[in-house]
Write a structure and sequence with these properties.
By secondary structure, the protein is of the alpha/beta class. It has a single domain, classed as Spore Coat Polysaccharide Biosynthesis Protein SpsA, Chain A. The chain is 30% helix and 25% strand. It has 8 helices and 13 strands. The strands form 3 sheets. Strands 1, 4, 5, 6, 8, 9, 10, 11 and 12 form a 9-stranded mixed sheet that branches. The protein has a two-stranded antiparallel sheet with strand order 2-3. Strands 7-13 form a two-stranded antiparallel sheet. Strand 2 and strand 3 form a beta hairpin. Helix 3 crosses helix 5 and helix 5 packs across helix 6. It is globular. 41% of the residues are buried.
Length: 253
C-alpha cells in the first residue's frame, strides 16, 4: 500500500503579490492546470489514494478546487489557523492527527517530474529526502550537507560553499519515523523555540538526536519551486519538462 500524501498549501506567496492577493499560490495556473492540480495528477497516476491538504490562506478556494478535481483521490482538508504567524512547521503540526501512518510530504508550490516521486516511494529507508545537486548554491536554497548515505545538516543558513546539494521539498516518512517527527514537532511548538520556521527544523532535530535521515538524488530530473515571478514565468514556459514525456528531454539526441 502506498503512503498517504500530505501537501502544505497554507502560505499566501507574498513574493507573488498582487497575483496572490486573493488567489492562493497553489491555485496559480501553470499551463492548462494549476500547481496543485499538477501535484494531484502525479499522485493519482502513481496510485496514491489518500491526500491531506493543509490549508490556510484561501482555504475555501482550495477546498472548492479539491472538490472539482476529477481523480479518484480521497482528499482531506486540514486548516492551519495560524498560517499568518507561522511557517510550514506549524502547518505540519496542525496536521499531526492525520499523520497516522507512513506519508510523503510535499510543498504546495513545487512542480516535479513524476519519476522523482516514484523514486522516493520505492525508498526503503525510514526517513528519506529528495535532493538535487548543482554547480553552486545561493541564500534562498534549502541547502544540505551529507555524509555517506545520510543528511547531517540542512538549512538555508548553511554556507553555500560547503553545501553538497539542496532539498527538493519532497520527503517520505515511514511508520517509525512518523512518531519521531511528531514528537519533535510537539517539542518545538510546546517549548520556547521559535515556531516561525519550516518543518525541516524538526527534521534537523531528528538528525541532532541521531535519527538517520537518508536522501535520494533526483538524478537530473526536472523540478521547480514557484516563489517569484521569474519562477512562475519559467514554470509556465517549460511546463512540458515536468511531464512523463520529459524523459525524452533528459536523453541525448
Amino acid at each position: 500500500m502506498l503512503p498517504k500524501a500530505v501537501i502544505l498549501v497554507a502560505g499566501r506567496g507574498r513574493r507573488l503579490l498582487p497575483r496572490t492577493q486573493s488567489c492562493p499560490k497553489c491555485l496559480l495556473p501553470i499551463g492548462e492546470s494549476t500547481i496543485i492540480e499538477h501535484q494531484l495528477c502525479n499522485l493519482s497516476n502513481l496510485g496514491f489514494e489518500e491526500v491531506v491538504l493543509v490549508c490556510g490562506f484561501g482555504a475555501d478556494k482550495i477546498r472548492c478546487a479539491a472538490a472539482r478535481f476529477g481523480g479518484t483521490l480521497d482528499i482531506q482538508i486540514v486548516v492551519n489557523e495560524q498560517f499568518e504567524v507561522g511557517d510550514n512547521l506549524i502547518s505540519l503540526w496542525a496536521a499531526r492527527h492525520s499523520l497516522d501512518r507512513s506519508f510523503v510530504l510535499l510543498n504546495g508550490d513545487n512542480l516535479f517530474h513524476p519519476n522523482i516521486l516514484e523514486s522516493l516511494t520505492s525508498a526503503r529507508e525510514g526517513c528519506c529526502l529528495m535532493i538535487s545537486q548543482k554547480d553552486c548554491y545561493d541564500g534562498d536554497d534549502m541547502k544540505v550537507r551529507t555524509a555517506g548515505t545520510r543528511i547531517v545538516e540542512i538549512g538555508k543558513e548553511l554556507d553555500p560553499h560547503t553545501a553538497d546539494a539542496e532539498s527538493i521539498g519532497i520527503m517520505r516518512f515511514a511508520s517509525g519515523a512518523v512518531d519521531v517527527l511528531k514528537e519533535r514537532l510537539e517539542n518545538i511548538v510546546s517549548g520556547d523555540r521559535e515556531t516561525d520556521c519550516c518543518y525541516l527544523t524538526a527534521v534537523q532535530a531528528m538528525i541532532d538526536t541521531s535519527y538517520p535521515v537518508h536522501f535520494r538524488d533526483a538524478g537530473g530530473l526536472p523540478w521547480a519551486d514557484v516563489d517569484t515571478f521569474d519562477d512562475l514565468s519559467f514554470a509556465r514556459t517549460h511546463m512540458s519538462m515536468f511531464s512523463q514525456s520529459a524523459r525524452d528531454w533528459l536523453e541525448p539526441a
